[in-house]
Amino acid sequence: MWRLGTSRYLSKRHERTGRRGTALPYTPCGVHQPFPHLVFRCLLTNRSGGCIMRKQNQGRGTRRRNFTVGVIFVVLVSGLARALECPKPVESDPADLVQFLEAQARTADPECVTLAIRRLGEFRSPLGIAVLVDLLDFRRPDSDAEKLHVFDAHDKFPAVSALFGVGSPAIPDLLTKLKTRKASPTERKNGIRAMMFIHRESPPEAIRVLKEAANAATDPQEASQLESAARDAVAFCGEKWRVKCADEAAK
Question: Nearest 5°: phi and psi at 211?
Answer without folding.
Answer: -65, -40
